[in-house]
Design brief:
Blueprint: E1 4-8, E2 17-21, H1 25-32, H2 37-46, E3 49-53, E4 56-60, H3 63-81, H4 88-97, H5 105-114, E5 119-120, E6 125-126, H6 131-142, E7 145-149, H7 156-169, E8 175-180, H8 196-214, H9 217-225, E9 229-233, E10 245-249, H10 257-264, E11 272-277, H11 291-299, E12 305-309, H12 319-332
Parallel strand pairs: 7-11, 7-12, 8-9, 8-10, 10-11
Antiparallel strand pairs: 1-2, 2-4, 3-4, 5-6
Helix pairs in contact: 1-3, 2-4, 6-7, 7-8, 10-11
């Protein structure tokens, strides 16, 4: 690694600083980010000042903040040495991983530094960023039926689709099936223009977007034309047996109890199934129970089925999204 850290105890009245030396100037440029945006993000998050002098970065501020900043910079530099990029979202994740209670922080930071998990797809390598995401990906690979439950922006669906694509390109399954309840379409489908596909496509768009991230456009189009990859409303799954397939049900909180039971019992030989949902965003009519909540109650503890949970700290969209979710959660709790 070759990163040298030095804390200089100053004479009385002078500012304390911790200095880090980075041997590879090219990687140091990537570490700092365009217009030093990564450094500015760390400065704002920790309340420190970071000074760049040649191939040295010096952190000025309180001792705890300097130590955290130095650890984060070393972690991000190791990512670059391993050939992985450093984006603002990675900086934000590193900052948030240190927000646990002090006695827990070293373990979490060590896990971020050493426990690299990667999902290979045709277009990119996907890397879960938080501890909860890493555990979720491990569950997706290790269980035939895996639930991912938590707020928007935590990567539940994105990672599930990435793992489905990985299963497919590795030959572990023969096809990919992605489904969502078209709740808002419901009885109004007949009033929308176009054929059935045009009516439901707007509800399926997030699944299309995820697939386009992982598979080249022409290949994806060909696979969809051949029905090797299907994106369909949940209601279209009735009466089918989904064998040798990677299956993802998104927005499962909007499935009724009957729909959820129907979907779960489609699981066939050689298949893997992932079910994702957010219990706080149920769009079902008043008085109709969410099938996700019932499945969580009935299936918890069954061998071969995993439940992974996310919180606002696992949000990997804009950092403000995590704060928005936290504000709503606090209000719901009466705080």
């Amino acid at each position: 690694m070759g990163i040298d850290a030095l804390t200089t105890p100053p004479p009385d009245g002078e500012i304390v600083e911790t200095s880090l030396e980075f041997p590879d100037n090219r990687l140091l440029v990537d570490l700092c980010g365009e217009f030093d945006r990564n450094l500015a993000q760390i400065e704002h998050g920790l309340g420190v000042q970071i000074l760049r002098r040649g191939n040295h970065l010096s952190l000025v501020g309180e001792a705890d903040a300097r130590d955290r900043g130095a650890a984060i910079l070393q972690t991000l530099y190791e990512r670059l040495e391993a050939g992985r990029p450093v984006e603002p979202a990675d900086v934000d994740t590193a900052l948030r991983l240190g927000e646990a209670e002090p006695e827990d922080a070293p373990d979490q930071l060590e896990m971020f530094q050493g426990g690299n998990v990667e999902i290979k797809t045709r277009k990119k390598i996907v890397e879960p960023r938080t501890d909860a995401q890493k555990a979720y990906v491990a569950a997706l690979f290790g269980h035939e039926l895996a639930f991912g439950i938590g707020p928007a922006g935590t990567g539940k669906t994105y990672l599930a689709v990435a793992v489905a694509v990985n299963h497919f390109i590795a030959g572990r399954v023969d096809r990919i099936i992605l489904a969502r309840p078209a709740v808002e379409a419901g009885e109004r489908l007949g009033f929308l223009p176009g054929d059935m596909k045009e009516k439901v496509d707007p509800y399926m768009q997030p699944l299309y977007d995820a697939l386009h991230d992982f598979l080249p456009g022409r290949q994806l189009q060909k696979l969809m034309e051949e029905k090797t990859i299907e994106i369909a409303p949940l209601a279209f799954m009735r009466g089918r047996t989904l064998a040798n397939a990677a299956v993802v049900l998104d927005e499962a909180q909007n499935a009724t109890a009957m729909q959820m039971k129907m979907f779960l019992t489609r699981l066939g030989e050689g298949s893997r199934m992932a079910i994702t949902g957010d219990r706080t965003q149920v769009d079902l009519p008043r008085g109709i129970a969410s099938g996700l909540a019932e499945a969580e109650r009935l299936l918890a503890g069954i061998d071969g089925i995993s439940f992974s949970y996310f919180t606002g700290k696992d949000v990997v969209r804009h950092p403000l999204v995590a704060k928005i979710i936290h504000a709503y959660d606090r209000d719901a709790e009466g705080g």
